[in-house]
Amino acid sequence: MSVTAVCPGSFDPVTNGHLDVIERAATRFDQVLVACTRNIGKSPLFTVEERVALVERVTAHLPNVAVESFEGLLVDFCRDRGVGVVVKGLRAVSDFEYELQMAQMNSRIGDVETMFMTTSPVYSFLSSSLVKEVARFGGDISDFVPAAVADELRSRLGDG
Ligand code: PNS
Q1: Quick check: CB of 134 below 6 Å from ligand 1?
Q2: pLDDT for 5-58, tens place per residue?
Q3: Active site residue 61
């Protein structure tokens, strides 16, 4: 039986921390479907089409990874594709409370199990928001995001 996992997120933009979780999920599941939410509460820097395109570029080396956008509930996206496993990265204890709440809600309103993958310690402090802030003020982001993402961030926010 082939098992697909969904890796959901905002990916505004995708970081090396996201990529690490996606790469590791791709070694444990037959297929990984990265799901970029269209609706972000805060106004996104990148449109959903741009976010999907960036995730596609940085996962191009992973043959069993596909990327899609979604609107609405994650459980509906999973149901429509027949996927019952969601994989999320946990950076620190501070992530846990909200992630636990979402996992339990998703299990209650849909037929999905959430599996948590601990983030590699080298990426435990990383977030898309912080990377954008560092880029906005001209800081070096090259260790935090893939080169293609760094170029986009610099041209949009920084010295590009
Ligand atoms: O990158 P993020 O912000 O951690 O991703 C959060 C995301 C997109 C996974 C979450 O907000 C989500 O699933 N949104 C879709 C709407 C939904 O299903 N909400 C109910 C969650 S219990």
Answers
A1: no
A2: 999 999 999 999 999 999 999 999 999 999 999 988 878 999 999 999 999 999
A3: no
Our mutation pick for probing the ligand 1 site, out of 51, 73, 104, 106, counting the most ligand atoms within 8 A of Cβ, is: 73
Helices marked H in 31-127: 48-58, 74-80, 93-109
Three-class secondary structure of residue 65 per DSSP:
strand
| Rounded distance from Cα 68 to ligand 1 centre (Å) | 14
Residue 25, both tokens: 């999920």
**Span from the CA of 33 to the centroid of ligand 1 (angstroms):** 15
Task: Identify the pLDDT of residue 158.
Answer: 67
Is residue 91 flagged as an active site residue?
A: yes
Q: Specify whether 18 is catalytic.
A: yes
30 CA → ligand 1 middle, Å = 23
pTM (2 d.p.): 0.96
HSE-up (13 A, CA, CB side) for residue 75? 13
Strand runs labelled E in the chain: 4-9, 31-37, 65-70, 85-90, 113-118
